[in-house]
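Revision sheet: structure tokens.
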Amino acid sequence: MSETFEQALASCNDMGPESFSKFAASIEPEWVEQALCVTGTASIRRRKLPAEQVLWLILGMCLYSDRCIRDVCDHLRLVLPAVKKLAPSVLPKARYKLGAEPMKWLFHRYAEAYAIDPARGRFAGMMLFAVDGTCIRVPDTDENFEAFDKPSARGKNNDSGYPQVRAAALMNLDTRMLVDVALGGYRTGEVTLCRGLWERLADHSITLLDRGFSDHATLCGIVGSGDRRHVLVRLKTNRTFVADTGLPDGSLGGHLPRPKSASTDWPERLQGRVIHYKHPDGKEGRLFTTITDIEDAPADRMVELYHQRWDIEIAFDELKTHLRYRRETLRSKKPEGVYQELWGLFLLYNLVRFEMLGAADAHGVHPNRISFWSSLHVIRHFWMMSAMTGSPGNIPKQLAQFHSTFNALLLPKRRPDRRFPRQVKIKMSHYQRKRNPRPAKVIDEGQQGA
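Predicted:
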């Protein structure tokens, strides 16, 4: 009897070499059952493609984004052993019957277990987090347009090619795993989406923010949501800082006053210090932090630390480019499928990152020395081979072969002096884009202000 994808996953955890003993990222079987039961999508009667197998199908779709759903199902052997044939309509129906909630629940359960590790706090004993937003293109269907909308553009039809989902992500910079993600339509602002993420932050931490998140409500919301939750943010040029003392490291102690436009629910002032800095050939900037101890966090170290915020931009590139093999859009043509696919992508990203973390620890290197692209290739080939062999007994041999490829995963050390100007590398096509004419979408006042 051939092994299912889920059984092969469990076998990997038990049979692999020590350094790759969790190559499959330890999704506990009971988590799958809980995800289905909590969301009310568990299969009561025995089907050709039970709900738990559909859940693995979603992960397989995300891992093999260049293959159609039927190929993924066939190659990973997700149907029951006695089933010889599935009708082509079964897989799409099974996807939408499952819905997005089980994938969302499983992502949060996995992130809760592995994304936050206090022992990895590497700056003055505090954990590092980053928050930022991005947009993800989805197929241009009427359903997706109504649910997510699209950005405006110059031209006759005054819109861009594809609807877009806006995502705001909270990432642990120590593990480089996603802690939480908030999703919304294109017209929903990043700051609005992020309001629900602060409760996921850990105590004794520093959150790195771009200047778009330097509003009073955001900063006070982070600092006031727990114990010793600090911020390090680049201030806008028009943001007022009241300095009252000069510090030996060159920074200025003082506070950020509450703007007149801010709600009176927030404190009148936020204590901290400002660090002025200027990169070669760059403009002068200001960093604000609520860490007032200059011995643990001197100004020069804080400037160096702030640029680790770009790790979350690297994560977005890995998610949108490498994990999806440069595909123009997601594959789902309905909003429910879009959400399901996105939660599957976020979970898969964490699975890959967790294995990279284990490989880095096993060889005593920093996680950012492990190549995401190479690791993704290894995992893709491994799952395809393990599914094709049909026997867990062959898995240790395959894992041993992948273990010997560690040097291919190792990246050279970063060179901080490298700088590249922003340039357009691909010239826009002169051909007219294909558009679906639609009436202008009415935006209510509440949505405009988001």
